[in-house]
Write a structure and sequence with these properties.
- This protein is about 95% helix and about 0% strand.
- It has one helix and no strands.
Length: about 70
Amino acid sequence: MVNQLYLTEKKLEKESEVTKETSSKTHCHETEMSQELGKSVLLSANAIEAVKQSSWDKNKEREVDYER
């Protein structure tokens, strides 16, 4: 009986270690994915701003051409 309890305790300790390791890896992966998403959002925002600026510049050029 005592031997069985000891074995059960050791098994639970091992499972707990595996769970902690898996949880840690999952957290790291989530962090990496979150960082990648953040970069993607930032790149998208920069691209949108570049398109807006380009459009604004073209409109300004047209205004100057019309004034001439």
